[in-house]
Amino acid sequence: MARTRSGHAQRVDPSLAATRRRPRSVIPTLADPITDYPTADKVPKTALFADGSRHEYRLEMIAILFKFVCERHAIQQRRLAGLAPPWTRDEWLQNYPFTNVFRVLDRNSQFILLRVIGDSPDNIQDAVFRVLLFRMFNKIETWELLEQHLGKITFQGFDTRAYCRIFETAGVTLYNAAYIIPAPKLGYNSNYENHLRLIEAMMNDGDLTGDLLQCKHIRDAHVRLLRWPSMGNFTAMQILLDLNMLSYFNWSEDEWVELGPGSKSCLRKIFPNLNVSAHAQEALRYLRDHQWSWYSTVGATQDQIPRLSAERPRGLSMVDIEHSLCECEKYSRGKLQHIPGPRTHVGKRRFAPRAGAPPTADVPAHWLAVRAPEDLPCPPPVEGKDVYEVECIVDEDRARYKVRWLGWGPEGDTWEPKEQVADGSPVLVDRWEESKQKVAESLQSRMRTATAKPKRKMAQRSSSLLTRAGRRLTL
Fold it and tell me: pTM, whole model, 2 decimals?
């Protein structure tokens, strides 16, 4: 896979650390919202969202968010340049670990990009399989354990029994504590075997790869992935962001994002009266669209505004803002202790730089191309009147399908009664139901191969497993 190195990276040979004195960081000072806005929390401020709704916000909390993203990204840039610590004067950023502003620059994401994807055979099945396998465990050491025993990991060579034998005798923790994906209840004795069987179902007759290739937007892919057991809203989003580093997918990360619990908590701190369930996406769009004025508010120069690489424009996408909101919520527990939240401790452990190779800052090559606007041709009018034609079904609930209209993007999606859609677009309904049926049958076939259990209990478990969000997948 072609990869592009960030223009800011400068590798330092660790063996020279003891003999060569590295330059000290030159750390500019940004405005401090606490001292610059001592009464900000007492002055109501109102934000006008794009949907026309108005919401009060805490000025100092928004200022803290954008000061945080500037300083956290500056720390990463100073580390890449080989500067000696401390990389910041901020005591909270010095003493506690926070992820990067750009998710792709985090350690696990870089490992996925360079090792899981970068070393993958040049075909989509292997690439998707390897990403799913890594993310189920989300632990670099587990991936390296498999490579030690199996060599290059491929879908063609995937043997669940061989993998299980490796894990049975490993004697180490296989799972990372972050972004845990619960094991599906497919009837096996160990979590890892249930996870492996789930991957097997996804990659074989479940045809997850084919389903995702049909999706033009990440929110549509999110719905497809949620059909599978153990996929929570947030963890499914993380898997899709990993898959989006593959050249086979190129979903926009600036039109919609699923929020995690930390991001939602931070939004409530910023907009104290916000109904997050109803207005989270509009809140993110507001922060994205107005970020430039907030950079100015905290005293950031143009060069201090975060930038993923020299080939990309400065500023944050919706995915970047969601990622940063989660970390800023932790940061605000120390910096703005008077603002209430569900947790008060900044972190469980102190920050200590990892020994060994310096951090990397690679980005997927296909991210550097300018994204062409989506071509949305509308059907021609009939007798001078506009024609509305359903292009595809993108979601459902008990009584309705969510439909995408020909010539419109996701912002034009509407919920329509199932009977009405079935009458007008029976082929699309059949296609949608068939894709659900593939998932159900694939899971059922894996459950039949599980350790023998009483048939009644297995049937009950199957019925429970294949019911999701009020929608029963008919077997």
Answer: 0.87
